[in-house]
Write a structure and sequence with these properties.
Helix content: 40-55%
Distance between the termini: 25 Å
Shape: elongated
Number of strands: 10
Number of helices: 10
Order of helices and strands: HHEHEEEEEEEHEHEHHHHH
Radius of gyration: 34 Å
Structural class: alpha+beta
Strand content: 5-15%
């Protein structure tokens, strides 16, 4: 019997019993939908975990702090300063994409009649794109930049009018990219000194800078910071030290996390950032850094704990889906067995006219396969509708509603393309497995007994 003949014969046999076939397909559809939706809930949980962790800091980044300076490593060696050479060593580690020190400097900014304190973060401009800083307008830093800056969305809220008798903040629509911006390491810049405040003996000339980009709100440290090239900030830091050491009393706040102990080259930095190539390498790189005596932190540390807390729920959801599909597979097997008993005489005639045993098996496996295909495709479609409903009404089976920083709810269900294909494919394969025993039963029927069947 030709393959095409068995194909048409299997379709015709299913069509002859439309009601039974339809009910069986509905069972497979519900089982497929249950599996896909239950898996999608678990995927959404993991996806939301990653989203939440990324709001705490990029999950592929490791924050390194030299809080243990002067101490000993776990194996008894002296902890080295966090110098440029040491950070270059970090960048050469296996699995690391790059590394940069962070030099944090307090300065004053003036925009028109408004002035305010700002936190300037000096980083290696070659690392700007690697750090995934969300620039919404303009561009990031490049190696050619000097007195250029990328400004956080909330920096403008630090600006105020010092000549006003009351609090007069900068307007919310102030566009720093369109204004003339100057900065100074003299913390009295732009303000009237209060009584008794020391003033610099030498007047500090402010630096005119160009704002080349704006950072969108992300809930991270960049929202309220100004990012500039590392070498430029080092230069400002040296001028700041001269002003303070010269008795100028500029009011500079030093010694914060991220600031260098001196110029940033000899005594070392307090903070650095390591960008790792893939998520599987983050913990290994962190362990190596900690073995050197430094403190290391990454949001990924919370990921495993979150997964453990939700593991029980994911197992229950998966069990529900598998149970639903097992019931659907039993329905397929029942349909096929009933078909054999009803078509016993037909099977005998097919054997008499020359059909081989493998032809008989192919017919019944094809019938089971068609049920799996139609049930799988319809089940994936139903699961997409169910996922849309879950997300639309923000139904979260994890017991809590998770929110994005912008206030939009995180998805309750997430169905990627691979899950749709896997759901349909699993339905087809499971249906074939459910049809194996009925097909074997049809192959073993005695021809004489089948022909005598009324």
């Amino acid at each position: 019997m030709r393959y095409l003949d068995t194909l048409f014969l299997s379709v015709r046999n299913l069509w002859r019993r439309k009601l039974r076939t339809s009910l069986t397909i509905v069972g497979v559809m519900i089982g497929t939908c249950a599996i896909v939706v239950m898996i999608s809930l678990g995927l959404a949980m993991n996806k939301n975990f990653l989203e939440q962790l990324n709001q705490m800091g990029n999950i592929m980044q490791i924050q390194v702090y030299n809080w243990n300076s002067g101490g000993k490593t776990p194996d008894g060696k002296d902890i080295e300063p966090l110098t440029d050479a040491k950070i270059a060593e970090f960048a050469k580690m296996e699995g690391v994409e790059g590394a940069t020190p962070i030099l944090d400097l307090g300065m004053k900014m003036m925009v028109g009649k408004y002035v305010g304190w700002i936190s300037v973060l000096g980083i290696d401009p070659n690392m700007f794109d690697m750090l995934d800083i969300p620039v919404s307008v303009g561009r990031g830093l490049t190696s050619e930049d000097t007195d250029h800056m990328v400004v956080g969305e909330n920096v403008k809220y630090n600006l105020y009018n010092p000549k006003s008798s009351r609090w007069d903040p900068a307007p919310a629509d102030l566009n720093l990219m369109e204004e003339k911006v100057t900065i100074s390491w003299d913390m009295t810049y732009g303000d009237k000194p209060y009584p008794g405040q020391p003033t610099p003996k030498k007047k500090v000339k402010p630096v005119t800078v160009e704002v080349v980009g704006m950072v969108s709100q992300s809930g991270g440290q960049y929202d309220y910071s100004v990012i500039m090239p590392l070498e430029t900030v080092k230069k400002y830091k040296k001028e700041q030290d001269k002003l303070n050491n010269g008795g100028g009393g500029g009011g500079i706040i030093i010694g914060r996390a991220g600031s260098s102990k001196s110029s940033g080259e000899n005594q070392g930095y307090y903070q650095a950032i390591i960008k790792v190539k893939d998520i599987d390498s983050v913990m290994d790189v962190m362990e190596k850094v900690k073995n050197m005596g430094y403190e290391a932190y990454s949001p990924i540390q919370f990921l495993e704990e979150m997964k453990k807390q939700s593991a029980g729920l994911r197992q229950i959801l998966g069990g529900i889906g598998v149970t639903a599909f097992i019931i659907a597979a039993i329905g397929i097997a029942n349909t096929m067995y009933m078909s054999i008993y009803e078509r016993t005489r037909e099977i005998g005639i097919i054997k008499v006219i020359g059909a081989r045993l493998k032809d008989i098996r192919r017919i019944f496996l094809m019938e089971a396969g068609w049920i799996g295909i139609f049930g799988g495709v319809l089940g994936v479609g139903l699961s997409l509708l169910a996922s849309m409903a879950l997300n639309r009404f923000n139904i979260n089976l994890g017991g809590q509603i998770m929110w994005m920083p912008q206030g939009q709810g995180m998805p309750s269900s997430y169905i990627p393309v691979w899950l749709m294909l896997a759901g349909a494919g699993f339905s087809f394969l499971a249906s074939l497995l459910a049809g194996i025993l009925p097909a074997r039963r049809a192959m073993e029927l005695s021809v004489m007994r089948a022909l005598r069947q009324e």
